[in-house]
Amino acid sequence: MSDARTPHTRTDGARAPDAPAPAGASGLSDVEASALDAHWRAANYLAVGQIYLMSNPLLKEPLAPEHIKPRLLGHWGTSPGLNLVHTHLNRVIKARSIQALCVWGPGHGGPAVLANSWLEGSYSDTYPDVSRDAAGMELLFRQFSFPGGVPSHVAPETPGSIHEGGELGYALTHAYGAAFDHPDLLVTCVIGDGEAETGPLAASWHSNKFLDPVHDGAVLPVLHLNGYKIANPTVLARLPETELDALLRGYGHEPLYVSGDDPFTVHRAMADAMDRAVDRIGEVQSAARTGGDTARPAWPMIVLRTPKGWTGPREVDGLPVEGTWRAHQVPLSGVRDNPGHLRQLEAWLRSYRPDELFDSEGRPTPQVLDCVPEGTARLGATPYANGGLLLRDLPVPPLEEHAVEVAEPGTVQHEPTRVLGGLLEDVMAATAGRRDFRLVGPDETASNRLDAVYEATGKAWQARTLPTDEHLARDGRVMEVLSEHLCQGWLEGYLLTGRHGLFSCYEAFAHIIDSMVNQHIKWLRTSRRLPWRRPVASLNYLLTSHVWRQDHNGFSHQDPGFVDHILNKSPEVVRVYLPPDANTLLSVADHALRSRDYVNVIVAGKQPAFDWLTLDEARAHCARGVGVWEWAGTEDRSREPDVVLACAGDVPTLETVAAAGLLRRHVPELAVRVVNVVDMTKLLPQSEHPHGMPDAEYDAVFTRDKPVIFAYHGYPWLIHRLAYRRTGHAHLHVRGYKEEGTTTTPFDMVVRNDLDRYRLAMDVIDRVPGLGVRAVAVRQAMADVRTRHHVWIREHGTDLPEVADWTWDG
Q1: Which of 60, 641, 774, 781 could, after both became Cys, cross-link 673 (CB 3.0–4.6 A)?
Q2: Do 347 and 420 share a structural domain?
Q3: Mean pLDDT of 460-478
Q4: In angstroms, rounded to a whole number, what is the distance separating the alpha carbons of residues 695 and 708?
Q5: Is the four-CA dihedral 735, 738, 743, 744 of positive or negative sign?
Q6: Where is the Xylulose 5-phosphate/Fructose 6-phosphate phosphoketolase C-terminal domain (predicted)?
């Protein structure tokens, strides 16, 4: 037991040899310290009650098995530390009239955050049936991790939360995202020492190099070292304190240390550390805002070292619990069936002296509430955690100012994302005063042809600059860092606190944040069902440098599967768009940037591509989501087409239109319909997605029984999955990316994957009944071109002239 508790037994402020000095003694009076301790004990009591009790919340009768939940779920180990932080945040918020938000990183710290929300009254304000009395306390206890209740972790249902606590690693990047462009906001972020071992959290320490003391708020990290994960010690908790101090200072922080297991000593040290941290933040901001100080500051942070499961059972069945990994979840697991455990639980609950904390009606006493702020200053009531309350419409300029002229389809080329970059420049300029739009990406803004935004703002940067640097600015609103995790987390925190943004990324590497977007989608799906959660701006992805034009970077950069990942998620939340040209990209982006509560994925190329539609045609096409391009086909309107050539994505669209031209020239009697799909969810049945096409409409466009040759941007089996219920699915043949990639020419990429115009024309000949015999010579000629292509690129290193110089001839 002594080894497990060694890190936590210093209660006198003394420091270990060669360790940094802890925070000094606080000026708290005994009355103030007692009030803080009362609030903390009340929160601990409520946390334990949520894990164990379903009735008898005030222990007005001896605890009996029927008072205990049949399934014990929840996490006790982190809760006392979270309660301590919440208690002391209350004090500084109230004393200094601070606007504050807290991001609770430890995974399943739900009991603590819910307890504090109930104590301050914000929980009852949000859920009036969970009143701040004995009846409400019983409901608070019963609903926790109970069917029909609330999760064991911090979640959308939790007032004051912007952070899904079910997955570790993202707390600090969310906190910084919340602080950007909120100059008056203090964002405290509690980081569990288990979470601190994750890759995203390790990278997140560098976020302070992007925090502008003039225009942004402040982030106060609280690294909570309770020593253990589920079953193992944590790395940072076992480092020598000098090594830990060097690490944190190397990250650019000034650590303040609080440690111990004597409550009153810890209260005084924590109050002092909070005061010193807030004072230091004020000094930094004042120096930058009024003194013109441009040096990158060392921001304060707190290292809180307390026992895991503090104030809980010290031993259970002869084994140490408090201060060990055994306190992580439910320290007493056999309470219903083991009388000894039941007696130990009752003694544990009564050790908080609940009769001092709650009156006879179960209401918190004045002493408990002495430190609690009022109104929207309460952490559970802050509008920053319900960002839709702060959200303003984004001033997107008229698309006519950026649209490209299209006199004839397929004759002029533009770089679609460069055209979009001009639109984003205007958005940046229009939001310069209000500062509520940011563009994030992993070092790819210029590479992705969006660099027009630098005419309106620079790249956020607080570190050292050199004469050779370009576009770096302390107040910049373009955020580039070579970590997709940071980009995702910053943007999530930014959106959830009432702002707008766009994430630009190479398509193949969007997979890095698969798990993060999972959590955000879950958050949005749940929050849409909570009437008190106001809609927030959508999370918008622009995936470019995509699979078909990564011919120069090779196989490692070729993966279109992020779309598959997204389309597995909640239909009410996810949208996927594949605009085929510049004007459709403008129309889709305009819609996505104005939307609320969605995850919009836009896949568009940055290389020169043909313009197919005028702006008006693009708007109508995007509104439909799927459209017949009569100008590209040869169908006879007096009868059904013989074949449908469908496409989704810019390169598949080019190959499909070119294939239609080949068929027009070589098989003129064939009736060909060309269909372009912008909104991938249109392929789903209407019963499966709000954008899904009714069966009658789908059959009218794709026919019920004619061959459909579908050229798709990504993995072909996705199209089959989306359309498998459709009547004509048996006649659907899909071409797409099938993991055939390398460093080669652009056209060779489509040939390698059988997505090229010649292969598509051959598919038509193979699948239209009777055509194979009549058009055998045409098919042979198409195969010969593919053979000639292989020889040509190996000799010349470029694509065939008839491919490279192709234009639509009408």
Answers
A1: 641
A2: no
A3: 97
A4: 16
A5: negative
A6: 606-808
Q: How many CA atoms lie within 13 A of 706 on its CB side?
A: 25
Does any domain span residue 616? no
What's the pLDDT band for 340 if we cut at 50, 70, 90?
very high
* Confidence band, pLDDT 50/70/90 cuts, at residue 741: confident
pLDDT score for 367: 98
Please check whether residues 403 and 280 belong to one and the same domain: no
Nearby residues of 727 by Cβ (< 8 Å), 6 or more positions away: 695, 699, 704, 705
User: Is-contact 521 570, C-beta < 8 A?
Assistant: yes
Last residue of a domain, one of 540, 575, 609: 609
* pLDDT digit string, tens, across residues 602-632: 999 999 999 999 999 999 999 999 999 999 9
* Residue 614 located in a structural domain: no
What digits encode the pLDDT tens for the residues 48-91? 999 999 999 999 999 999 999 999 999 999 999 999 999 999 99
621-637 per-residue burial string, b: 16 or more CB within 10 A, e: under 16: bbebbbbbbebbbbbee
Rounded to whole angstroms, the Cα distance separating 489 from 487 reads 6
Instruction: Please give the pLDDT value at position 21.
Output: 42
Which single residue is written with the structure tokens 């313009």?
Answer: 611
Helix (H, G, I), strand (E, B), or coil: what is residue 307? coil
3-state secondary structure 644-688: EEEEECHHHHHHHHHHHHHHHHHCCCCCEEEEEECEHHHHCECCC
What length does the chain have?
A: 810
Span of 21-30, 189-198, 288-297, 684-693 with lowest mean pLDDT: 21-30
User: Measuring CA to CA, which residue among 137, 140, 209 is closest to residue 176?
Assistant: 209
Same domain, 635 and 605: no
Do 359 and 404 belong together in one domain?
no
User: Is the pLDDT assigned to residue 341 strictly greater than 80?
Assistant: yes
User: Alpha helix locations (H) across 703-775?
Assistant: 717-723, 746-752, 757-767, 771-774
Average pLDDT on 590-597 reads 98
Q: Show Cβ contacts of residue 603 under 8 Å, excluding neighbours closer than 6 positions.
A: 507, 543, 544, 546, 560, 563, 576, 577, 578, 649, 713
Residue 544 dihedral angles phi and psi, to the nearest 5°: -135, -165
State the residue for tokens 């120096």. 287
Q: Are residues 370 and 402 in the same domain?
A: no
CATH code, domain carrying 316: 3.40.50.970
Is 619 part of a structural domain of the chain? no
Alpha-carbon gap, residue 41 to 264, rounded angstroms: 12
Specify if 617 maps to a domain. Answer: no
Query: What residues make up the domain containing 428?
Result: 389-609
- Both 285 and 380 in one domain: the answer is yes
| One domain for residues 115 and 172 | yes
